[in-house]
């Protein structure tokens, strides 16, 4: 009587069969973190910002970006992400009464953290502004995204981009442009003679006036004096009488 065959080969085959049926080189599923099927902007964000404005000093200075690239798609999302960082820093120094309205506004903008990389590029610059201006910007950006955020993917906005710095390197003109510039008329250079004449003319006029005055003085001194008149016969008779 023969012993029954062990059942482990059949069991191993059943375990390996699903692995063999998997497609080779299947791409890993990646979730688009910058797509929002449902709008994350609540309908009460205006009230939350208004409550925070009542507690904050209007002229409290905060940092706002100064040279973000003017990208129509990413502009609002970038500003909200930077405002979120400012609110985080304010929460660390705020008092107990201010924590609640700060947290409410922070919650309104917290959705940007799933898309925007919070590390700043070295080119990003900041300037000082009042907290009231920052809250107005947050309000306008949330209002702009409220209806548009579900209609597009913000995947290109994951990294901040700065405005290009003005180039300080002068570029050499092409040979064609050199020929065109060579054919144009240049304004004449000022003559050295003209420059000298402008400086000498006042001195020359002064010398002429001095010479004319001296000539008049000499003429006056060289004029002969009048001789006394000789007495007439009538004068002599009067003197005898």
Automatic annotation (TrEMBL):
One of its GO terms (biological process) is positive regulation of cell population proliferation. Gene3D superfamilies: 1.20.1250.10. This is Fms-related tyrosine kinase 3 ligand isoform X3. The lineage of its organism: Eukaryota, Metazoa, Chordata, Craniata, Vertebrata. Residues 1-28 form the signal peptide. It comes from the Eukaryota. Residues 220-241 are annotated as: Disordered. Keywords: Kinase, Membrane, Signal, Transferase, Transmembrane, Transmembrane helix. GO terms for molecular function: cytokine activity; kinase activity; receptor tyrosine kinase binding. Coiled coil: none annotated. Pfam families: Flt3_lig (PF02947). InterPro entries: 4_helix_cytokine-like_core (IPR009079), Flt3_lig (IPR004213). It comes from Phascolarctos cinereus (Koala). The chain crosses the membrane at residues 193-213. GO terms for cellular component: cell surface; extracellular space; membrane.
């Amino acid at each position: 009587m023969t012993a029954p065959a062990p059942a482990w080969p059949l069991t191993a085959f059943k375990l390996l069969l699903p692995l063999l049926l998997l497609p080779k080189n299947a791409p890993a599923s990646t979730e688009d973190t910058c797509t929002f099927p449902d709008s994350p902007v609540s309908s009460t964000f205006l009230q939350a910002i208004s409550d925070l404005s009542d507690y904050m000093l209007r002229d409290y200075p905060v940092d706002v970006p100064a040279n973000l690239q003017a990208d129509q798609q990413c502009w609002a999302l970038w500003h909200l992400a930077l405002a979120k960082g400012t609110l985080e820093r304010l929460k660390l120094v705020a008092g107990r009464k201010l924590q609640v309205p700060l947290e409410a506004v922070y919650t309104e903008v917290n959705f940007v953290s799933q898309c925007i990389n919070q590390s700043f590029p070295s080119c990003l610059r900041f300037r000082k502004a009042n907290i009231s201006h920052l809250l107005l910007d947050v309000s306008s950006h949330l209002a702009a995204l409220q209806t548009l955020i579900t209609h597009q993917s913000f995947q290109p906005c994951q990294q901040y981009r700065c405005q290009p710095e003005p180039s300080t390197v002068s570029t050499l003109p092409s040979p064609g442009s050199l020929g065109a510039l060579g054919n144009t008329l240049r304004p004449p250079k000022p003559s050295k003679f003209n420059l000298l004449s402008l400086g000498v003319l006042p001195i020359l006029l002064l010398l002429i006036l001095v010479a004319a005055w001296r000539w008049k003085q000499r003429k006056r001194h060289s004029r002969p004096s009048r001789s006394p008149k000789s007495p007439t016969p009538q004068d002599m008779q009067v003197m005898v009488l």
